[in-house]
Amino acid sequence: MTATESDTLAALRRAREQLDNTQTAISALVAEARAQGASWQGIGDALGITRQSAWERFGKREQAADNGSPEGGN
Questions:
Q1: Using CA atoms, how far apart are residues 66 and 72, in angstroms rounded to an integer?
Q2: d(Cα 46, Cα 36) in Å, to the nearest integer?
Q3: Which residue, 54, 52, 2, 66, is CA-closest to 26?
Q4: In Å, how far are 16, 28, 64, 69 from 22, measured between CA atoms?
Q5: Which site in 6, 7, 36, 50 is 20 to 30 Å from 65, CA atoms measured?
Q6: Is the dihedral of CA 12, 17, 20, 21 positive or negative?
Q7: What is the pTM of this model?
Q8: How many whole angstroms separate alpha carbon 39 and alpha carbon 65?
Q9: pLDDT of 15-72, one tens digit each?
């Protein structure tokens, strides 16, 4: 493995970590917005996606957490 390849792979690992952190932050902010009464339309607009996509991505987790399902922890 060359130094350049090693540097690129290290940068790729850092980018994945940043993506993971960003996804965690977005999930937490969506949960907070919902707790404050935000609609799925408003959340979708803020994320640049449809309300249906927002609900499919985050609402199912919220619903599962409300029901005590292990899926809610994901």
A1: 8
A2: 15
A3: 54
A4: 10, 10, 22, 24
A5: 50
A6: negative
A7: 0.75
A8: 18
A9: 999 999 999 999 999 999 999 999 999 999 999 999 999 999 999 877 777 777 555 4
Distance (Å, rounded) from C-alpha 12 to C-alpha 29?
26
Measured over the CA atoms of residue 53, residue 54, residue 60 and residue 63, the dihedral's sign is negative
Q: Which residues, at least 6 apart from 39, have a Cβ–Cβ distance to it below 8 Å?
A: 51
CB atoms within 10 A of CB 48: 8
Q: 42 is written with which tokens?
A: 């408003």
Q: In Å, how far are 1, 14, 16, 18 from 4, measured between CA atoms?
A: 8, 15, 18, 21
Query: In angstroms, rounded to a whole number, what is the distance separating the alpha carbons of residues 26 and 45?
Result: 14
